[in-house]
């Protein structure tokens, strides 16, 4: 199931690569607080991923792909 990405302009787009909340299983959304280019001309984001059910939030700075990878990381079950 796709989740939403929200930017300050109010635009949303489907993002199927963000996993559900690790705490409650709710949908997660990526919220852009600011976008700009770094010294190499690559996109750099300041934002957060938030669960729409339990409202847990993780703030991030960096490349969007890395931010999503960190959110999606889960502990190994023994």
Can you give keywords for this protein?
78 residues; mainly beta; five-stranded mixed β-sheet; 12% helix; 44% strand; disordered N terminus
Brief sketch in words of this structure:
12% of the residues lie in helices and 44% in strands.
Explain this structure.
This protein is mostly beta strands and about 80 residues long. The chain is about 10% helix and about 45% strand. A 5-stranded mixed sheet has the order 2-1-3-4-5, covered by helices on one side. Strand 3 and strand 4 form a beta hairpin.
What is the topology?
Layout: E1 3-7, E2 12-15, E3 28-37, E4 43-51, E5 57-62, H1 64-72
Parallel strand pairs: 1-3
Antiparallel strand pairs: 1-2, 3-4, 4-5
Give the overall pLDDT as a whole number: 78
> How does the helix and strand content classify structurally?
mainly beta
Q: N-to-C terminal Cα separation, in Å?
A: 27 Å
SSE succession: EEEEEH
């Amino acid at each position: 199931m796709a989740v939403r990405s929200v930017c300050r302009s109010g635009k949303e787009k489907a993002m199927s690569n963000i996993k559900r909340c690790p705490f409650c299983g709710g949908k997660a959304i990526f919220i852009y607080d600011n976008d700009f280019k770094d010294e190499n001309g690559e996109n750099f984001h300041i934002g957060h991923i938030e669960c729409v059910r339990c409202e847990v939030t993780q703030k991030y700075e960096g490349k969007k792909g890395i931010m999503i990878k960190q959110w999606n990381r889960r502990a190994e079950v023994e």
